[in-house]
Write a structure and sequence with these properties.
single chain, mainly alpha, 60% helix, flat
Length: 81
């Protein structure tokens, strides 16, 4: 496995390339954007695996999943009578 430092550097470089490709008019940009976004997803998965392994080695449990709940609301208007 690669170190977290190396993975974060690779992630930063990938983000720079994606930002450059977003601002270019090159006809090859969409294909290259897809490639770099795929690489970014792979790097993110590898970062998650390394962080999980580090937590496991230290005996730290995985964080609980975050659940966001939104209550429904009703909106009514007031009229002048």
């Amino acid at each position: 496995m690669r170190s977290l430092g190396e993975l974060y550097q690779r992630r930063g470089i990938c983000n720079v390339f994606i930002e450059i490709l977003r601002n270019t008019n090159d006809v090859r940009a969409p294909a290259m954007l897809e490639k770099y976004r795929g690489q970014l997803a792979t790097i993110d998965a590898e970062i998650a695996a390394v962080e999980q392994a580090n937590r496991r080695d230290l005996g730290i449990p995985d964080p609980e999943p975050i659940v966001v709940g939104v209550k429904s609301a009703s909106i009514s208007g007031k009229t002048k009578e």
